[in-house]
UniProtKB/TrEMBL annotation:
Membrane topology: Multi-pass membrane protein
InterPro entries with a match to the protein in the record: DUF697, UPF0283
Keyword Metal-binding attributed: no
Protein's name in the database: TIGR01620 family protein
A single Gene Ontology CC term: plasma membrane
Length: 357
């Protein structure tokens, strides 16, 4: 029996709550792919994607490997207009020359003869320029073919090396070609021939080009340091840099004309402006070191150091573009190798001045 006191106890107005270990299931998402299905025709021809090979060294961020030496397509419309104007001018001078001689008009005769001479000289210069541009195009084609040399068969590799010998103007009795021929074997494939070409044919020219870059950049730095005239410095630097580009190209068997020289210079400046990220980081650290070294020199010597480093960098870029076979990452010349030589040259120049003070 329950007591009256139990019936008088207050009851909890809240309803009872039951707890369970089972977790409620979340609503399932509809199993429908939002992307529409793709259907392929079984008879559609397939195309194999190119496989990237390790060790090729091709990188989209490395402008030195881009074929920027490739000449542009000729503008046939402009050439046709120039050729037509030259032809009409020549015909006018030729037809007017007999009439001037018959009438005794010696002044008009002299002007017509002078005009014919100018047209003849211009035609000859244009022909030489087109010939040099054609050689530049052959150099670009050879450079592209040599990039595939390690993967060629012995027969095709030998034919490609023969083209390189013709561009470098190496006769059969040349010491470098003799050393290459003695080291060459019949079983050598393209990779072996590439190493022999690097060692026997291109390495001597690389050393010669490096000595030229070091000497001309050092001389330019010293001349700027001792010259008191800014305009003279600008003309001197431009003249010596163009001369250095011509000499480096001749070392690798490439003769530049006016248009080819401008095109190569523009390509070099383009590479200097859009270098890879790694090279930019290296150049930034080198610039900090240059500022520290320049602080120990006088104002003129510091200007000479900056101009010398600019010339050295321009020369190294030209060497990379003019070289028929691209440098390997370990053999690529560095600007740090030339920095010490420039610094020592300017320090020797300033040593007598400090002794006199």
């Amino acid at each position: 029996m329950t007591s009256p006191q139990d019936d008088q106890r207050p009851q909890d107005p809240r309803p009872g709550i039951r707890f369970s270990d089972a977790k409620p299931r979340s609503p399932e998402a509809p199993r429908v792919d939002p992307q529409p299905g793709l259907r392929f025709d079984a008879e559609q021809p397939s195309r194999q994607l190119p496989v990237a090979r390790e060790g090729d060294g091709a990188s989209a961020n490395d402008p030195a490997l881009e074929p920027i030496l490739r000449p542009r397509k000729r503008r046939w419309g402009l050439l046709a207009v120039l050729a037509g104007a030259a032809g009409l001018g020549t015909a006018e001078l030729i037809t007017g020359l007999p009439a001037a001689l018959a009438g005794g008009d010696w002044l008009n005769t002299g002007w017509q003869i002078l005009g014919l001479g100018v047209i003849g000289l211009g035609t000859g210069a244009l022909g030489r320029e087109l010939f040099r541009l054609r050689r530049l195009k052959r150099h670009d084609n050879l450079r592209q073919d040599l990039s595939e040399l390690p993967r060629l068969s012995p027969k095709h590799a030998s034919a490609l090396v023969e083209r390189l010998r013709q561009q470098l103007a190496l006769h059969d009795d040349h010491p470098h070609w003799q050393a290459f021929s003695n080291a060459r074997e019949a079983h050598h494939d393209g990779r072996d021939l590439a190493e022999l070409v690097q060692h026997h044919l291109l390495a001597p020219r690389d050393r010669e080009a490096r000595r030229l870059i070091s000497r001309m950049s050092s001389e330019t730095a010293v001349m700027v340091a001792v010259s008191p005239l800014t305009l003279v410095d600008m003309g001197l630097v431009a003249w010596r840099h163009l001369a250095m580009i011509d000499r480096i190209c001749r070392i690798y068997g490439l003769e530049l004309g006016y248009g080819a020289r401008l095109r190569l210079l523009r390509s070099v400046l383009y590479q200097m402006a859009f270098a890879g990220a790694t090279e930019l980081a290296t150049d930034a650290s080198m610039q900090m070191l240059t500022l520290d070294l320049a602080g120990r020199l006088s104002a003129r010597a510091a200007q000479g150091l900056g101009v010398g480093l600019l010339g050295a960098r321009l020369g190294l870029r030209t060497q990379q573009l003019a070289r028929p076979l691209a440098f390997t990452p370990n053999e690529r010349p560095r600007l740090t190798d030339l920095r010490k030589e420039l610094w020592q040259q300017l320090k020797r120049m300033e040593a007598p001045k400090k002794g006199q003070d």
